[in-house]
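User: Hey, my collaborator sent me this sequence without any context and asked if I could get a structure. I don't really work with proteins. Can you help?
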Amino acid sequence: MFKANIGKITIKDENILADEKYFTDTMPLKDGMQNLFAGTILKMGAGEKLEHLEGTGSEDPIAVLTETIKGETKDTSAVVVVFGRVNRDKLTFKDGTAVTNAQVEALRKNGIYATKGDK
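Assistant: No problem. I've predicted the 3D structure and written it out in structure-token form, which is a compact way to encode the shape of the chain:
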């Protein structure tokens, strides 16, 4: 785990990965998002920037944030999981609430497998 302060944001790495086989990418985040938790599931938004799900059920999650970002995003990029196995109990919506089975299934269809325990 690492913790760093960069400008107006604080980044703290969290262990959301459940396996050693995964792909990550550094992708830009939508400006104006605040206090994102590690494990936040993200979708592609306008301008090819990731943004958090609204929880409507019709959204297409494509990535999971690997670090906590405190403060407001402005020209910010973050490391996200784009393929592999993650800990289901670490996944959250933007407000920190747990994700639903529908979001877990949507992630699975995009190559991100949210599991509990060692299975």
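In plain terms: DSSP finds one helix and ten strands in the chain. You can pass these tokens on to your collaborator as they are.
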